[in-house]
Amino acid sequence: MNHPETLPQGVTPRIFSGIQPSGGLTLGNYLGALKRFVQKQDEGIETVYCLVDMHAITVWQDPAKLRHATREAAAGFIAAGIDPARSILFNQSQVSAHVELAWIFNCVARLGWMSRMTQFKDKAGANSENVSLGLYAYPALMAADILAYRATHVPVGEDQKQHIELTRDIAAKFNNDYGVNFFPLTEPVIEGAATRVMSLRDGTKKMSKSDPSDQSRINLTDDADTIAKKIRKAKTDAEPLPGSLDGLRDRPDARNLVNIYAALADMTPDAVITQYAGAQFGTFKPALADLAVAKLSPITTQMTRLMQDPAEIDRILGEGAARADAIARPIVDQVYDIVGMIRARR
Ligand code: AQP
Question: pLDDT (tens digit, 9 = 90+) per residue, 190-227?
């Protein structure tokens, strides 16, 4: 853990995290990220949360859909418990410090580091010559998102761990190249029973908002019937639930449902297995569906209500952006000084 004594001068504990508005939010985003974001806010740490629209366009987005998804994600954050008075909530493109710092980091990060990023390899697939340069450079922009606030901790799902490690490498190389102790080595915070929620159609694949199959995920906009139907149809095997977690080792689909139950109920997976030992999926799935509906329906209802006033959402994002800019601008100005850029018009 980053201990306060070892942090660079002027750096205080601060949380930063983001979600791409590249589609509707999923149960994976909720359990792996959003639910944790709310907990961090409620612990009283300074929290900065960003809808990373500049990341979203690394893959082509329909402009009207991007605008809608950004507002809907903001509504999802607020409905899930993010209080824009206590947390800073904004969309990335309104704070230019992010892309300015990203360019500097493009000149610090090494090509070989980017080539090792598994998310790039997964997303580019066999088509890597034909994806955008932005998709390749994505981790440098993500490092800039975090370090423009000199954030000390980033709550994320398991899939983002490698990108946070790269952020630390970029911070360390910048500090070393310029002989400063300016950027902290940010820690990932990967906690809870569902740090990697898997597809409902394939327990070996991450639940993702861009999966072509809507049946593979639960969206935060799904109504109660849709949630129940998707859980009922979730892929499982014919065996009942075992008496211990060990018995789920080679059963990824079953393990996924147990993890989702645990995360929604704020229980450990062990406690879920103890409660449902020997139960058939005919019993477990309806219990999980009831739990998911009870936890998610209030969020969906509130999101729908908030979406009726898009101007108010835009106002909240604008206000958040101004507060974010007030933190990030002086940090990026200091970076320009460190790097040797003349800033005569300040
Ligand atoms: N399945 C998941 N389980 C746990 N956490 C997850 N996260 C995403 N999916 C899961 C966490 O949500 C945060 C925001 O992720 P993101 O939207 O910026 O990008 P992503 O990880 O690439 O999510 P998707 O849904 O797969 O988006 P697309 O399909 O657009 O690429 C992160 O903290 C992430 O760990």
Answer: 998 889 999 999 999 999 998 999 999 999 999 999 99
Judged by DSSP in three states, 86 sits in coil
- Decide: pTM greater than 0.85: yes
DSSP class of residue 141 equals: H
Question: How far is residue 344's CA from residue 167's CA, in Å, rounded to a whole number?
Answer: 30
Is ligand 1 within 6 A of the CB of residue 22? yes
Residue type, 81: G
* The amino acid at 71: R
Q: How far is CA 97 from CA 142, 241, 330, in A?
A: 12, 50, 9
Q: Which domains does the chain have, with CATH numbers?
A: 4-190+310-339 (3.40.50.620), 214-305 (1.10.240.10)
Give the whole-angstrom CA distance, residue 39 versus residue 160: 19
Mutate-to-test residue for ligand 1 from 141, 160, 264, highest number of ligand atoms within 8 A of CB: 160
CB 19 near ligand 1, within 6 Å: yes
Structure tokens at 253: 């689909």
